[in-house]
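Hey L., structure's done. Input below.
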Amino acid sequence: MIQLLILLMSLMNQSQIEEIGFGNGGGFTGAVTSYVLTKDGNLFSENAFTEERSLIKKIDTSVVDDLFQFAESSDLLSFRINKPGNTYKYVDFNIAGTHLKSVWTGKSENKSLNLLYAQLKDLCQIKE
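Output:
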């Protein structure tokens, strides 16, 4: 645990997030809908089983920079939640191959996480 904290603190001094994965899943079918936003603005849909990606669109770099900056400047890189319900949402920060994932149902107690998820969802025009 301490090693992870040291790694996290050393990474926080850099612009560390390479990708933000997000999506939702569960319910009767257990289906998972996954997306990945890269630092260079590529928005992909991702097959949750094969991890195969399909480019959806390119997002303006200023929008991407704002989202990544928000994630890095808020408490999201140190906040974790793992409370999936029957249906769930998730956000996964990829930092040098290390995944920092939060999973929740309904609304998270972390307002920054709810806001980031809503902004990411809006990029894909996801309706829930």
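The longest strand covers residues 87-95. The mean pLDDT is 85.

-- N.
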